[in-house]
């Protein structure tokens, strides 16, 4: 942008100088142009260095620090500036998609929620990585992260950090309820019964938003099913939520929502409300992302929550739906996409993404922000092991995670599912999966409002 | 203003002939002034056309397509298919009903409270300015901010309302009517000052002589209110109701902040937002947007023609 402003100014100065015939006027014009250009370049900081704009999701400053360190590593060839997107993943997408649809060249690098990569890639909004580049970004990276970054056989985004949910629980509550959440056959049924029996809660994300879709998808996948398949067929994708797995998932949602173990504000609960529930007097169990460990320790240190809570915090694999089938935890994280209209899409942007997603920087980011790395090797690092005692569990859970439907129409699939499955207490295994299947189809074909 | 009042009726042959005659009589100075007037107003007209008329016609055009911004190649002309989809969808009518409930209750309650506040401001003998400022304060707060303030007050975990009322674990935002109650309360708190301001202007226009004459005739305070004050400020009341109805019918911010439309609290504006911005289904979203626009137009026409609202009242032209 600085570059463009300066160019325009120079042209302007030239025209003024050429229009006049007297030497004095020419000199005045030239002096003015030089002064103006000098002033503007001073505003731009380091003058002609190409600047890459990286749109990041809000974090504790880890991505901005990585931008600084990669700028340093570039040795003055380019620099990376960061702009923060809204908090909510859906709103992040809304902002990016609209700007990309307008062919905005100001989006060089974007931190994308994995579920939105397919949509942006299908629309031609992202620059695909060449085969020669792809290997660098996928080597040693968790399979679900690569799957989510790939569309029609091409890699459209570089996995940056991967995420999964595990079961967090208060050790004292589990002990009182007489259950071992780390046991291989620990199911949702067992957990809900134990919590209800001992007067504690099971925290989930029951608000009508993406977090609720994450839970529904994990339950359906853990029961051995899928919400949709053949996603590449767009609005003709096969809708499979009306299946025995869909019914089992609905049964779990209904059972929890109607039990004493439910949060009193279940239909509004997001990640942070679930965490607050776990820290409260009736805190028992909660499914949530990996950031919890860092957040709980930080809050205890700051005196926001009781200092004894982190010591009482236990972790276990995501609960199963059926005792004989391993669970498929949710998959999340962030992938880095390169805008299709950026000035440096084929040069510095690729280089910058390579720098940001290097194994070393993934480790740095994990230690800095608490968000898990996308490469399995990072979890064997002694520093990471020391900082995150549950690192092994997170690594295994990401490896076993089930991605949400990979489709360009993801927002419709998610919105339609949430719409028919909300509020959780109204979910009925006999009708909800069937109604949601019909509705997803109608929404995909623009035959219904959402 | 005077020119309008003294001008002969326009439109008929006599009107046209009159205009021609006046133009012929017009002095050079008059013509120059008229030209200047047109020139001065031209930028405003152009801006209005660009920012209002163009988007409107563009929306009308796009509403005839099945079109998503993420799939520009799949754009199909579907005639009025999107309108049929919207008008036959239960969700559309559910949202119409929700919007109607919010509008009817907020406007009704605001009219009563606004009138009471206007009377207080009108009759206050001392600290008039302070009183008016205090009453108008909520209107100066950005709706999104007031929405968050009310959300946090009623929130189960961070709120204080349940503690004050001894309601324990009652989740205000867990059900349709309790959520709408908080949304409506917030709307009333926020916009009652606007209604009271308009009504205060109306009250100020009621001549004291009428009130005194009624007092001399032995009318009670109640009779004076219903027989003298209110009939004489009918136009101001209608304008207040019209403006607030149009405003309430387009409610978005409070719903967005407090419930994001869940538990059947979605309004027509929110429905448009979800189709257009969230789904990026531009065709369907524009169809809903056009229907919303038509409903706003209908309300305005019904009020202005049906109830003979005189918009010049708010400008103080009479």
UniProtKB/TrEMBL annotation, chain A:
Signal peptide: none annotated. Pfam families: SBP_bac_1. Keywords: Signal, Sugar transport, Transport. InterPro entries: Bact_solute-bd_prot1 (IPR050490), SBP (IPR006059). The keyword Transport applies. Coiled coil: none annotated. It comes from the Bacteria. SUPFAM superfamilies: Periplasmic binding protein-like II. Residues 1-23, 414-433 are annotated as: Disordered. Belongs to the bacterial solute-binding protein 1 family. This is Multiple sugar transport system substrate-binding protein.
From TrEMBL, chain B:
It holds the Pfam family BPD_transp_1. Keywords: Cell membrane, Membrane, Sugar transport, Transmembrane, Transmembrane helix, Transport. It comes from the Bacteria. The keyword Membrane applies. GO terms for cellular component: plasma membrane. It is found in: Cell membrane. GO terms for biological process: transmembrane transport. It is a multi-pass membrane protein. The chain crosses the membrane at residues 36-57, 96-121, 133-153, 281-304. The keyword Metal-binding does not apply. Residues 1-23 are annotated as: Disordered. Its main location: membrane. Residues 96-303 form the ABC transmembrane type-1 domain. Belongs to the binding-protein-dependent transport system permease family. This is Multiple sugar transport system permease protein. It comes from Actinomadura viridis.
